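Input record (one chain):
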Amino acid sequence: MLMDLLTTAEERLDEATEGSLRFDIGLLAGRLETASDWVRANPSTHQLSIGYFGASTGAAAALVAAAAEWRGKVAAVVSRGGRPDLAKEALSVVRAPTLLVVGGDDRVVLELNRQALAKLVCEKRLDIVSGATHLFEEPGALQQVAALAVDWFVRHLK
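The corresponding structure, as predicted from the sequence alone:
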């Protein structure tokens, strides 16, 4: 399931307030938990394993949601160019295997991911896409991220 964590109206408000909502990790994580609740309640999907894929602040939300009431119920997390540092104390609670993917030329976010990796106590890995910047706009960069994410999810979603 692909979803935006903010509504169109909230995105407009977020732009006008310089990111007040996109950095509300609790709000974003709550939306992921609600979506996961829906998946578990739906007869056609209730037996599926849940994996979270988040980019930027969505990655922090995925980690917070994985650490919250879904502990043990989220099978894997992938962060693409994410800000796992914004998950703060939740990092040490996450038990879902977690893959952090960062562009090699995104030096600030790469360092933040290295620091977050050290705080994670679950199965974890940091993969660096050489020559990629924050948005992975370079030719082939998103394809590398997709391949890494697919491999991680195939391995951990049962």
